[in-house]
TrEMBL record:
It comes from the Eukaryota. Residues 1-19 form the signal peptide. It comes from Mycena metata. Keywords: Membrane, Signal, Transmembrane, Transmembrane helix. This is Uncharacterized protein. The chain crosses the membrane at residues 194-212, 286-309, 321-344, 356-379.
Length: 404
């Protein structure tokens, strides 16, 4: 509710300046960047502050799963760059990934009496058997849990490239950017489209960092654990054949990444877990709810923040309508696809026609969604060429902090 109130206030504030040229002219006169009166900022300050925040929200905030031990430095770099690209194009997918791992780690912690850090380490493929295969299935854990309990939480955290202080500072950085935006709205100073887009990343970054607060950062090598003497790995008794994902379509791979279900994945056919993998726990309803809250709910909020610039002054009408259509689609599509899935499951389950319609709508969204995201990214920078004078006026913090 607080989020939508903020969006309404920001839209209303920007709408006042666009809908009334006299008010815009007066605002530019009253809040012009006169450094003898006001604290000013330059275009470089705006761009640099936003880019630094986006980098912190996409590169620094990523807590990847443990990679294949044989990957070289260049392959590891490309792996993280791909994840960064996914975060920029579809950050709600990463939020859903983080939410699934959080729920799974919390459940493992309670079920097997270990710390949340142990739970996250299981989810990220951090524990491997003596044969080098990840212990990454729920039915594997009983065979290895006695050894896992002997591993200290401090030993796992020692592999992390980030500690509690650094993660706390990173969260504070995102909250600080949000605070700056709220202060500008409070003082009726306009936000640039780049700042609105960065605000969306900052809000989602805070959520991601909180979900992954107990997850080790950038672990490169797993920890080998032995089976209990009285237990055997249940997967050893199955007829496991190497995975063959070459037959999977692009839609299948995208669905696996979004939904988090890697049906073809087998620990005994790999030396690492998939990039967006988490251990499945609980019922299908729990899995569906986590995906709804993480992917669809957050995706709608991400688009909704962009909608806050609905009535902001744009250099041209074409740019204004491209921004409006793109942000509205990104805000509405996650909700529509969820409602369609619920309706199909409720009224026409296992129906070929329903499945075809739902699949077509999914394909349409997967194709169009990144295009609209790219439009918003491009417009965030092109609109900087024509900013009102009041955009260069900095926040007067003495209004909130006396004697500053």
């Amino acid at each position: 509710m607080l989020f939508w109130i903020f969006v309404f206030l920001l839209t209303k504030q920007s709408g006042l300046t666009q809908g009334h040229p006299d008010l815009l002219s007066r605002a530019a006169t009253e809040a012009s960047c006169d450094c003898t009166i006001n604290s000013c900022r330059t275009l470089f300050d705006i761009v640099w502050g936003c880019l630094a925040t986006i980098f912190a929200c996409t590169w620094v905030a990523l807590h990847q799963n443990v990679p294949d031990p044989d990957l070289g430095h260049f392959a590891l770099l490309m792996r993280k760059l791909r994840m960064m690209l996914v975060t920029i194009i579809a950050p709600e997918v990463i939020v859903g990934f983080a939410a699934r791992q959080f729920v799974s780690a919390r459940w493992i912690s309670k079920e097997f009496n270990v710390s949340k850090t142990h739970g996250f380490f299981c989810n990220m493929g951090g524990f491997v058997s003596e044969e080098g295969y990840p212990v990454s299935k729920m039915k594997q854990l009983p065979a290895y849990i006695s050894t896992i309990r002997k591993i200290k939480k401090a030993d796992i955290e020692d592999k992390s490239k980030g500690d509690t202080l650094s993660k706390g500072v990173a969260i504070a950085q995102g909250l600080w950017f949000v605070t700056q935006c709220l202060a500008r709205v409070s003082q009726r100073l306009p936000l640039t489209e780049l700042e609105v887009a960065t605000l969306a990343f900052a809000v989602l970054s805070v959520v991601i960092r909180l979900l992954w607060f107990h997850k080790p950062l950038d672990v490169q090598q797993p920890i080998v654990v032995a089976r209990s003497e009285v237990e055997i790995d249940p997967l050893q008794e199955e007829d496991i054949t190497p995975m063959n994902n070459s037959s999977d379509t692009l839609l299948d791979k995208l669905a696996s990444a979004i939904d988090g279900k890697y049906k073809e994945y087998s620990p005994l056919a790999s030396t690492s877990v998939p990039s967006l993998y988490s251990i499945e726990i609980g019922t299908e309803d729990i899995h569906w709810f986590v995906n709804f809250a993480g992917v669809c709910g957050v995706g709608s909020i991400f688009g909704g923040i962009h909608c806050a610039a609905w009535n902001a002054p744009f250099p041209s009408m074409a740019e204004m309508w491209i921004w409006r259509i793109s942000s509205a689609f990104i805000a509405a599509y996650p909700v529509l696809i969820t409602l369609l899935a619920v309706a199909a499951d409720e009224w026409a389950p296992n129906n070929d026609i329903t499945d075809a319609v739902f699949g077509s709508f999914m394909v349409f969204g997967i194709v169009v969604y990144p295009i609209f995201r790219l439009f918003l990214i491009i417009l965030s920078f092109t609109t900087l060429r024509s900013l009102p004078p009041s955009a260069f006026v900095d926040v007067n913090w003495s209004n909130y902090i006396p004697h500053l």
